[in-house]
Write a structure and sequence with these properties.
The chain is mainly α. The protein contains 13 helices and no strands.
Length: 255
Amino acid sequence: MRTLIYSNLFIALCAAILTLGTYGIIDHPPDVFLVLHVFGVTLMAYNVQRLARLEKFSNRTDQIRWYLRNKWMLYTSLLIGLLLAGITLFFLPIRILLYFSPLAVVSVFYSIPFNKGRTIRAIPGIKIFLITGVWTGVTLALPLVMAGQSIGEREILLMIQRFFFILAITIPFDMRDLKYDEEHMRTIPQTLGHVRSKQLAVALALSCVLIELLMIVWAESLSLDRQAYLNIAFYLLVAGLISGVKKDSPDSYFT
């Protein structure tokens, strides 16, 4: 399990599942090549980030110690992601991919120095919003466009819901890194503190439940179908897990 998580295979699988889930939401046959492309790009991007910052890490956590002992695994995962992303690229419309190319640039160069040694992630106050925006764009907006889905009120609500969800589950990672991040980064936990950051993350997860109910009303339906029940239960579970985050929670809990 540790290898699955630390090699970034798990996070890439999550991105692919979210993308696949978007097709389920709009009741459209999934584009297998897009799902595989998202998996490959995510696997490649996260391993690039880990390798780019590896020498700056101290042996502060079990995760970092695993990275230092298993560099070959990071390089192997990076190669797999690169090959998969490259191969599937030939089966996707270039025009649409060009629209979303800025997301790919942000993902790959997130931790790579580009301006006097500075990285995109080091720009104060925007790190978490970059991550959330990229994940929302790749796992929701991209499959919507690929499916030829028109953007209406429901789709906008879906984007807000996905943004809130990703933001909610990302805040705990910044809470975990509170004692390691430089002060100038101005992350949400640095600004609000541990308790208020957790409250904000829980509120965002619960907001996803309200948006789910709002979409049902928007569809002029007063009944909850099976998928709606599952979605609501999932967001409530996420809110519960976030509320259980502690300063000394293990890395696996955040994942």
